[in-house]
């Protein structure tokens, strides 16, 4: 009897592999690639600038080991590549396909949108051959990865040199930084203007309620004061009109990636990368569907289960006669589902399932949000009875509004974002008079636009068509890690480096921070995915752009230095202020060559510590003293003893191997404490 064909399923994460292994049993062997196992090299460009051919390398020794194990297993086996159902996941799958296609008996593509036994088995059963899948996904990945590498590798060193300092330029991160900088400048240049709000407190049947002068904002102080004085002694108000209407409020569609990130940021104060980390765990543990999507569609089968759950849990009153269908903005998105729960059980049961998997309180907070939004999206509207009444007070019209919630509908489950003004108004009849018990005139000031939060920045990027579900969290993380924005509370504030970078790019590489260009490039990649455009054309356009403006530019630092020197030497440089070459010549001629007192004192103390000779000519020359100091620092390091506290920090963070390398240890410790201070 011939031996049974081995079946191998390949996913990205070990946790997901363990979960799926449980469902598929002993006929299958489920292995993990542990994320991207191939990437462009870290220390070089890794792209041929003539052919744009990338050089992908195995990322680490561990990945090398994993790959050789999978290759052995795949000999004559039936392989299912089940990496994530998006571009990045497909790319990992494609690299694996490339490694195994000569070894395996056949290779199929499985896309898991939820990690549940039924779904996994169905997908495995229907999996198409890998050759029949859309290779456009891999091409779109190539375009993004290679294009981003070229922009970063070519422009970052130029920007660093010309601005002075360490700067990184990114095709998508730089426009995000520009948004934060522009918003901050709007706030700085904002001039508040006063306006006036006039209200009267009215009373009937012992119920007090507020009414406002019909022009809610009065710009003219004199007019506001005049009305206030005119009605001051009036003790009644007459009802001149009443309007009643029923207002229905519909539930919001289920979550897409960006809306989940925005809501978790505003409601739970989670950063987008934290939200994505928690969602990844919820997905891998089979509690939600795949968390990278821009679709609001829910499968018919899931809708049926949600409707059954609503009926059982809340009763028929809360169930609309027909299922609600939501349409995504772009039709392509609908291949995926929205982010929804996979177990249609109560919140208490959800919590139990989550605890069985050993997940945290934060996981539960996010799961609760997804649960509420999933269920609410299929419930009936909330209904308000809204009354608007108009009053005459001494010939001036005042208006009051009150709402009563008649039926809570979906708000029974999800009532966090909609604000319907509710104030209780007594029953009123046209023509009757009510008491006026008080009036108030307030001066208010117009407010500047608020700073972006990570949530509202994601929303803005999505509106502008910049970035995609898989990249928002990475963009946020990058602009924080690179030191372009800092968080104050939940708000994002640009650093000095952000202003310098954006002003520089604006002058010299404007296309990098042009929202429209970035959007067009994202759309280009969508066309590549649909096989309507070629990825190399995408990369070529970006490469040509990086080459088109290599003329020198004057950095703020250089200009400030030149102006300082001109002042010191009593020179007028207004005629060369826009000429980089002449400005550089002027600086070279007039720059200070003597070291500062601080440098001299530091050099002398190093000389004493190390016993190194400090020649007189070194003390006269700025460049020479810099070189001497660097040499002496290395010498001093040889005998440097780390303190017990420093050693303890290294050991606690698993860096004990650095104890014998004081120079590296200090470098690591500096960066560790800097990050701590930022937090």
TrEMBL record:
Site (Interaction with DNA): 36, 144-145, 148, 153, 292, 482
Domain Topo IA-type catalytic: 134-550
Active-site residues per Swiss-Prot or TrEMBL entry: 290
Isomerase in keyword set: yes
Toprim domain boundaries: 6-115
SUPFAM superfamilies referenced in this protein's UniProt entry, alphabetically: Prokaryotic type I DNA topoisomerase
NCBIfam families (UniProt xref): topA_bact (TIGR01051)
Protein name according to UniProt: DNA topoisomerase 1
């Amino acid at each position: 009897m011939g031996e049974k064909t081995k079946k191998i399923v390949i996913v990205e994460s070990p946790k997901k592999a363990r979960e799926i292994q449980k469902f598929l049993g002993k006929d299958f062997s489920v292995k993990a690639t542990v994320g991207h196992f191939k990437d462009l090299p870290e220390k070089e460009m890794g792209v041929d600038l003539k052919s744009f051919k990338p050089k992908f390398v195995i990322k680490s020794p561990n990945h090398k080991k994993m790959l050789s194990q999978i290759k052995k297993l795949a000999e004559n086996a039936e392989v299912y590549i089940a990496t994530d159902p998006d571009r990045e996941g497909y790319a990992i799958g494609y690299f694996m396909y490339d490694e195994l296609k000569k070894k395996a008996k056949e290779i199929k593509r499985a896309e898991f949108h939820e990690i549940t036994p039924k779904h996994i088995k169905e997908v495995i059963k229907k999996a198409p051959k890998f050759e029949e899948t859309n290779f456009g996904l891999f091409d779109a990945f190539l375009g993004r990865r290679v294009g981003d590498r070229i922009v970063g590798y070519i422009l970052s060193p130029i920007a660093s040199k010309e601005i002075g300092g360490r700067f990184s330029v990114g095709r998508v991160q730089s426009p995000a930084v520009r948004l934060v900088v522009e918003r901050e400048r709007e706030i700085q240049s904002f001039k508040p203007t006063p306006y006036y709000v006039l209200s009267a407190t009215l009373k009937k049947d012992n119920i007090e309620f507020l009414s406002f002068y019909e022009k809610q904002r009065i710009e003219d102080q004199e007019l506001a004061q005049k009305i206030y004085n005119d009605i001051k002694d009036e003790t009644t108000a007459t009802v001149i009109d009443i309007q009643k209407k029923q207002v229905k409020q519909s539930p919001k569609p289920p979550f897409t990636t960006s809306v989940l990130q925005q809501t978790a940021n505003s409601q739970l104060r989670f950063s987008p990368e934290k939200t994505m980390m928690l969602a990844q765990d919820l997905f891998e543990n089979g509690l939600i569907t795949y968390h990278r999507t821009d679709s609001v569609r829910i499968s018919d089968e899931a809708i049926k289960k949600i409707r059954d759950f609503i009926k059982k849990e809340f009763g028929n009153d809360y169930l609309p006669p027909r299922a609600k269908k939501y349409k995504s903005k772009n039709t392509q998105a609908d291949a995926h589902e929205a982010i929804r729960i996979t177990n249609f059980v109560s919140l208490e049961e959800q919590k139990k399932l989550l605890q069985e998997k050993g997940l945290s309180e934060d996981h539960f907070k996010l799961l609760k949000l997804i649960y509420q939004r999933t269920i609410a999206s299929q419930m009936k509207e909330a209904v308000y009875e809204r009354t608007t009444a108009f009053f005459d007070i001494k010939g001036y019209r005042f208006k009051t509004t009150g709402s009563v919630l008649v039926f809570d509908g979906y708000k029974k489950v999800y009532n966090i974002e909609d604000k319907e003004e509710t104030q209780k108004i007594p029953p009123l009849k046209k023509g009757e008079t009510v008491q006026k018990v008080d009036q108030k005139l307030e001066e208010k000031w117009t407010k500047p636009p608020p700073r972006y939060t990570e949530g509202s920045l994601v929303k803005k990027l999505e509106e502008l068509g910049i970035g995609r579900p898989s990249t928002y969290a990475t963009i946020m993380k990058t602009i924080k890690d690179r030191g372009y924005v800092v968080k104050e509370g939940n708000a994002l504030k640009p650093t000095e480096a952000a202003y310098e970078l954006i002003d520089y790019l604006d002058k010299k590489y404007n296309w990098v921070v042009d929202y429209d260009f970035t959007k067009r490039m994202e759309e280009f990649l969508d066309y590549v995915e649909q096989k309507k455009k070629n990825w190399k054309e995408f990369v070529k356009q970006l490469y040509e752009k990086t080459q088109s403006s290599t003329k020198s530019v004057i950095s703020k630092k250089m200009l400030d230095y030149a102006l300082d020197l001109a002042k010191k030497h009593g020179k007028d440089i207004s005629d060369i202020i826009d000429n980089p070459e002449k400005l550089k010549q002027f600086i070279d001629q007039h720059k200070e060559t003597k070291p500062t007192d601080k440098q001299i004192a530091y050099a002398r103390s190093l000389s004493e510590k190390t016993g190194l000779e400090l020649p007189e000519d070194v003390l006269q020359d700025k460049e020479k003293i810099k070189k001497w100091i660097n040499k002496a620092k290395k010498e001093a390091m040889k005998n440097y003893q780390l303190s017990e506290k420093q050693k303890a920090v290294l050991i606690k963070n698993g860096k004990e191997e650095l104890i014998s390398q004081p120079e590296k240890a200090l470098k690591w410790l500096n960066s560790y404490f800097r990050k701590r201070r930022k937090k």
